[in-house]
Specification:
454 residues; three-stranded antiparallel β-sheet; alpha/beta; Aspartate Aminotransferase, domain 2; 16 strands; single chain; Aspartate Aminotransferase, domain 1
């Protein structure tokens, strides 16, 4: 059957705000041409992120009402811990208020000047926490993952040959951790194969390097493995997820993605000594280890969400809805990363707006055009987010210039998605009209969140 319906009914709604083109021009101007600085009430379809934007289920809202708010030893913590241990298998489950808090803790302990962390592709906050510690963050994405329209089943994979060569050259003692991001967010939401996970884990064991999973979208990645990798077609998503986590020494997770909640995260570790050090830092920065900066009601909702995300009917709908969007845009010739990933459409801004050089932020130009034309907010993943400067102050562009349109879970219907596609196609038809941007203000780290442009 071609049509995939939402595997849920809508029980509560909130209104959308409609604006005119002249209003959006003024709004964008006042926001210094940075979509992060626009008020949410001025956005019609908000695809800035899929983080913390999910619609929670009736059972999750019910959990909110029974959450145990005890400071220490909350029943809600123990329920959350039980679910997290069932999925990951890790001995120590440490709650945090979101994923970047877990990253801050682990990279503060293991990072520092002279250290290098490696990954298939680090996302922005992960890279920011590593660099803030004084360490270096390097990506080893497979070559096919760098070609937007090349079709391959697992374009999020680690380039294991390049990884091992780097380890030999850099010295394993200078590499505290290897992180596998699943799915590969900055690489187009592309999945990582079980085979690649096994190969990477083996390399890390060979050289005595910790191997961690960035598990934000573990369930989506597991479903891709079930559908695309031989030998997994008859395994449950839970079993596949458990095998993924068994290959690593621990994980960080922003529960705001695949745990279907609006706030929450955790750090999970097998090493008791490292876990104890992490808990001590958690107490200083986040809270007591059985609440970790979260209310008991949030722990309850997170536990329920981790169970719900393993529902294969939901995952089938989730991935198919992204694929549907990709098919519609591809039919109109819109350049994008193919095949579609698990949580977002990634438009190829470099091919979409070839007249704009990387130094003039083609991704920003495209993202802003979508807002001006249709009130749609996406996010640039290109020269603003990941660009660097050389010793002469000249721009160093990242491998790809992308605009990510991340689809919140269980929030928008097919008609909303059809509208988004219509606006993208309209902007594509008018693509020669758009010009680039320059930065007038930037912060030293994660500049895309607060930059001013003109």
């Amino acid at each position: 059957m071609a049509i995939i319906i939402e595997p849920f009914r809508i029980k509560s709604v909130e209104p959308l705000t409609f604006t005119t083109r002249p209003q959006r021009e003024q709004i964008l101007k006042e926001a210094k041409n940075n979509l992060f600085l626009i008020k949410a009430e001025h956005v019609l379809i908000d695809l800035l992120t899929d983080s913390g934007t999910s619609a929670m289920s009736a059972k999750q809202w019910a959990g909110i009402m029974v959450g145990d708010e005890s400071y220490a030893g909350s029943q809600s913590f123990y329920r959350f811990q039980e679910v997290a241990k069932k999925i990951t298998g890790y001995k120590n489950i440490i709650p945090t208020h979101q994923g970047r808090a877990a990253e801050k803790i682990i990279f503060s302990i293991l990072g520092g000047k002279g250290k290098t962390f490696v990954s298939n592709t680090f996302f922005d906050t992960t890279r920011g926490n590593i660099e803030y510690s004084g360490a270096e963050a390097l990506d080893f994405l497979t070559e096919e993952g760098k070609i937007p329209q090349h079709i391959a089943p697992f374009k999020g994979n680690m380039d294991t040959v390049a990884l091992e060569a780097f380890i030999k050259n850099r010295g394993a003692e200078n590499i505290p951790m290897c992180v596998m991001t699943i799915t590969n967010n900055s690489g187009g939401g592309q999945p990582v194969s079980m085979q690649n996970l096994r190969e990477t884990a083996a390399i890390c064991r060979k050289y005595g390097i910790r191997f961690f999973i960035d598990a934000c979208r573990f369930a989506e990645n597991a479903y891709f493995i079930k559908k695309r990798e031989k030998g997994f077609e008859n395994k449950s998503v839970l079993a596949i997820s458990q095998e993924i986590f068994s290959l690593a020494d621990g994980c960080t997770m922003s529960a705001k993605k695949d745990a279907l909640v609006n706030i929450g995260g955790f750090l999970a570790i097998n090493d008791d000594a490292l876990a104890l050090e992490s808990k001590n830092l958690l107490i200083i920065t986040e809270g007591f280890p059985t609440y970790g900066g979260l209310a008991g009601r949030d722990l309850e909702a997170m536990a329920q969400g981790l169970e719900e995300v393993l529902d294969e009917e939901y995952l089938k709908y989730r991935l198919r809805s992204i694929e549907y969007m990709g098919e519609k845009l591809s039919a109109a010739g819109v350049p994008m990363i193919l095949p579609t990933g698990g949580h977002a459409i990634y438009l190829d801004a470099k091919a979409f707006l070839p007249q704009i050089p990387a130094s003039e932020m083609p991704g920003v130009a495209l993202a802003n055009a979508l807002y001006l034309e249709g009130g749609i907010r996406g996010v640039e993943i290109g020269s603003l987010m990941f660009g660097k400067y050389d010793e002469n102050g000249d721009h160093i562009a990242p491998p790809m210039e992308l605009v990510r349109l991340a689809i919140p879970r269980r929030v928008y219907t097919q008609s909303h998605i059809d509208y988004v596609c219509e606006i993208i196609i309209e902007v594509f038809r008018k693509r020669e009209q758009y010009s680039g941007y320059k930065i007038t203000y930037e912060s030293p780290l994660l500049r895309h969140f607060t930059a001013h442009l003109e």
